[in-house]
């Protein structure tokens, strides 16, 4: 049976359709640095890609943080595909790996995203990128990580603060997930496994860990620019949780339509379960949102 993701109208030069799950091609990109280490673990690496820079000005950067339930996937799988559009729009792209559960826990994965950001900023001059224009782009589990890192960095005015965040079908809140009474069959199966892997305990014994790993608890008086995108028919992520998160963000003192967007994909499933998150009509608005952030 063909994977639903194959319905995507991929740019042929950018994707290898031979496997059942299409794999991005990178050989067409002449300017790249692969497997840059930001830590000692084999997974603590990122790839940097950019097209020819038409000016001497440092490029803004989109950092892709893949999904996969906190325990699967890779920096060179289909999650990086939107980054090709980012390159066409004048961004450099970083696609990063982080250590995976159950070998490490959620908070250590947050540490990895932070460490990668700091490493990128430290080497910005060498890469000819702008350390003040870094944008996080995370899907599913990656959406959890970028949401929390983005909010924490902003609230603390930390060195790893970024210019904006895009969270696609994100695992926003372990707490809300646990409290949902009407879970889909997929959620009833998935959630206990994901919680045990990512937090180290079964849901009933992980209430405090869930709170610490839930993005709503890191919303401050002001927010960084935030773009949320989620499908209304997602069997894995409750769209109402994403909507609720948006409502909480909208209470921030600086929340405006220019720095806070929720993009509802009517009838769409989870990322990877169809073409929606990989089509240009749903990628380019995110990049336009990033471009507007000064």
Provide a compact summary of the structure.
With 294 residues, the chain is of the alpha/beta class. It contains 9 helices and 10 strands.
Question: Can you put this structure into words, describing what you see?
Answer:
Helix content is 32%, strand content 19%. The chain has helices at 81-88, 106-122, 124-127, 141-155, 174-179, 185-199, 207-212, 239-249, 280-292, and strands spanning 15-16, 23-24, 32-37, 45-49, 59-65, 92-96, 129-139, 164-168, 226-231, 260-265. The strands form two sheets. An eight-stranded mixed beta sheet has the order 3-4-6-5-7-8-9-10, with helices on both faces. The protein has a two-stranded antiparallel sheet with strand order 1-2. β7 (129-139), α4 (141-155) and β8 (164-168) form a beta-alpha-beta unit. It is globular.
């Amino acid at each position: 049976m063909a994977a639903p993701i194959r319905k995507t109208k991929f740019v042929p030069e950018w994707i290898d359709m031979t496997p059942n799950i299409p794999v991005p091609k990178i050989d067409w990109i002449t300017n790249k640095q692969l497997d840059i280490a930001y830590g000692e673990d084999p997974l603590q690496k990122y790839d940097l890609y950019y097209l020819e820079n038409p000016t001497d000005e440092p490029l803004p950067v989109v950092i892709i943080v893949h999904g996969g339930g906190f325990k699967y996937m890779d920096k060179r799988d289909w999650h990086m595909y939107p980054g090709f559009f980012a390159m066409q729009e004048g961004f450099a792209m970083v696609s990063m790996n982080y250590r995976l559960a159950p070998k490490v826990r959620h908070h250590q994965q947050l540490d990895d995203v932070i460490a990668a950001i700091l490493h990128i900023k430290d080497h910005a001059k060498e890469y000819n990128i702008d350390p003040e224009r870094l944008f996080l782009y995370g899907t599913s589990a990656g959406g959890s990580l970028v949401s929390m890192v983005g909010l924490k960095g902003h609230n603390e005015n930390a060195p790893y603060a970024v210019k904006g965040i895009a969270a696609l079908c994100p695992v926003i809140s372990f707490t809300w997930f646990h409290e949902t009474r009407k879970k889909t069959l997929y959620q009833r199966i998935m959630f206990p496994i994901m919680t045990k892997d990512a937090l180290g305990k079964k849901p009933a014994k992980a209430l405090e860990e869930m709170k610490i790993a839930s993005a709503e608890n890191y919303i401050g008086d002001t927010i960084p620019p935030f773009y949320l995108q989620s499908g209304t028919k997602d069997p894995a992520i409750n769209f109402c949780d994403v909507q609720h998160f948006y409502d909480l963000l909208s209470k921030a003192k600086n929340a405006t339509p220019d720095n806070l967007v929720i993009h509802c994909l009517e009838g769409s499933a989870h990322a990877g379960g169809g073409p929606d998150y990989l089509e240009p009509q749903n990628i380019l608005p995110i990049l336009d949102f990033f471009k507007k952030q000064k």
